[in-house]
Write a structure and sequence with these properties.
The protein has 199 residues and is α/β, with parallel strands linked by helices. The chain contains seven helices and five strands; from the N terminus they run H-E-H-E-H-H-E-H-E-H-E-H.
Length: 199
């Protein structure tokens, strides 16, 4: 069987999604980077969460801040609520799966922190409760959402930012969210440390 057509079709479809999204997403991405930059300059942190593939993206974002994106620089305070399996299963078994993120946010979240909530599919209750918990802690929220994320959208306040990818295919939404995360990391480095100059 010749898989070239399938592979080329996926590449082409992804390229089209990116091309059609650039104008719509540039403004929200810029706004989110400014929100996160302000929080970091004021000694606050960014907390990220998501389920499944979105959990991996949350960890990608925080490891880029804690380690490095492209160039060496000081670590930036970021926390993924998805990385501790023991904590997730303990909360899931006692408080229930809907509270795996909100319970952690009530413990770690502080006023001025930013929640990065990633939802490439319909937002389930754990993400909705995370946003509610963030608001209770006077945190701002950046949502990476999708065209079907209407429930999550109802929780987004005017001071929050919703970076919504309009694609019917979840794989393309995940790809776009990864691209957005890379953009955010690059903008944060640029805003906080200036252009990179190689000696």
């Amino acid at each position: 069987m010749d898989y070239y057509a399938t592979i080329a079709g996926h590449f082409q479809s992804t390229i089209e999604t990116i091309a059609l999204s650039a104008d719509d997403l540039a403004g929200p991405i810029e706004g989110a980077s400014q929100m996160m930059t302000r929080a970091l300059l004021e000694d606050h942190k960014i907390i990220a969460c998501g389920n499944g593939a979105d959990a991996a993206l949350a960890q990608l974002f925080t490891c880029n801040l804690l380690s490095r994106f492209e160039h060496d620089r000081p670590a930036l305070p970021a926390l993924a609520l998805t990385g501790d399996g023991a904590t997730l299963t303990a909360i899931g078994n006692t408080a229930g799966p809907n509270d795996v993120f909100s319970r952690q946010l009530r413990a770690f979240g502080q006023a001025g922190d930013v929640l990065l909530c990633i939802s490439s599919a319909g937002a389930d209750n754990s993400l909705l409760r995370a946003v509610q918990a963030a608001h209770e802690r006077n945190m701002e929220v950046v949502a990476l959402s999708n065209s079907g994320g209407t429930q999550l959208g109802t929780l987004i306040r005017t001071e929050d930012i919703d970076i919504r990818v309009n694609s019917e295919r979840r794989p393309h939404v995940v790809e776009m969210h990864a691209l957005v995360i890379n953009c955010l990391c690059e903008l944060l480095d640029l805003s906080l440390f200036g252009p990179y100059t190689q000696d």
